[in-house]
Amino acid sequence: MTAKIIDGNAVARHVRGEWKKRVEALKLRGIVPGLAVVIVGDSPASRVYVRNKVKACAEVGLHSETHEFPADSGEQTIIKRIEELNANPAIHGILVQLPLPPHLETRHLLGAIAIDKDVDGFHLYNVGGLVVGENNIFPPCTPYGVQCLLEYENIPIEGQNVVVVGASNIVGKPMALMLMAKDATVSICHIKTRDLAQYTILADILIVAAGCPRLISAPMVKRGAAVIDVGINQLPDGRLVGDVDFDSVKEKASYITPVPGGVGPMTVTMLICNTVAAAERNAAKNAEKIPVPA
Amino acid sequence: MAATLLDGAAIAHQVFSRLKERIHTLHARGLQPGLAAILIGENSASKIYIKNKAQACQDVGVYSEVHRFGADCSEEQVFAIIQHLNVDPRIHGVLVQLPLPAHLNSERILQAIAPAKDVDGFNWVNLGAMVAGHTMLAPCTPLGVMTMLDYARVPIEGRSAVVVGRSAIVGKPLALMLIARGATVSVCSSKTPDLRQYTLMADILAVAVGNPGLVDGSMIKPGAVVIDVGINRLPGGKLVGDVDFASASQVASRITPVPGGVGRMTVAMLLENTVTATERSVGID
Question: How much is the ipTM here?
């Protein structure tokens, strides 16, 4: 058996198309969803990420703006801008591009974003909503993108054995909580796990986000599993590879994501989804406030 | 092999004596920890819990006050008292005794408590901090489980832990706390088709589903540490956990009884959170 290769670019295109319709519906009501990106310093990688986000916004019809600060900016200066954006009715989503220069406390800046504009889903309130299993929050974009890929491919989640490799704050742990809410049995493995294969071999759905090239080889994978590779690693020769040994695992899995072109394109797409959802929720809230004529 | 009992009463007793030392230190700085409880309605079990919590406060030297409301009180009244307590300098911990009357939205009310005073650990900001790996105030039951494991010197890092039950106040926070300590954690539920496959892997097995006898000795890895969070009343009135104690205690190395196990830790953890919140309010960490 050879796995179906999940084409993240194609799924992302489809999802963006669907959400574009929702943007158009909002525009008919005079609302243009708006995203503000705060970027501190001039890390070339961050600039590329921000450029991609701005491009995706334009493609789906969102307003976007970037707020650039020099690397040595003070915390209060940036928080003041975040507070202005919190109060700005043209802005529905705010994100602070990470990582920040070391003198800035990430938690303070993320905590300053209004919870109903926190489209990266990193505010602790939104993260806590994942523990409660609340639907009306903003799921963090990468695990949200993985969930979207699984749903797009109609891969069942309820009652399935899911193994998440990597227990990071922004991918592994939120991913595990999101799939628990979908009634999967979830195991979370990480660098301290003694016998990784003992777990991975159980997985109907195996999600790997460890940042370790070729961590997962074919003997560790259950025949017919869906394998989602979140890792992106640059090899010494410049090639980009994931955490899964793609060539051997694809002969055993039922579904597999390539790297690049798998989960990657979904992340920015989900940021767009969260921003549009924020605009929709805001519109619903404002509609409630309008008095009904007698 | 017969398992050693993890005696909740004995461990809670030790927790209380350490707490008294911390409270003594705070008193010496002129600071008395204060806990405010909000009790709504006439639920008789809730009244007993509140009485026990107030008694425990008095025993260790924590100031406490209870704010009582009739069952028909409005959400605005509850928000008003919470907002008052959030800024009251004598109060370091605020709790709302659950369950609430049906017309009150408990999730919304719990969000009104300032995260720094949320000693039950139910505020989303505190739950989120557990995911982010910098726990501030953790819910009392999973905190009690972790404390029992630590007092019994159960190794956690690199061990296989299985949590059966994925509630927002026990299963999921416990899983996050075990991950933070380096355990590989599987979270099972009533939707897990083959529970035994998981439980047999567990070096540490915690069960919190409310299903008497769900886990028996044949499902336990020899030598495992078994924590039974369930409390179920059988038709005859007897209290039992989710684990079949008779068969499980033949296989496990250590096991909590029900009653007398995890349940005995809860009030101790509430006071620990109150003392921790008091210490943080003056910058002791």
Answer: 0.96
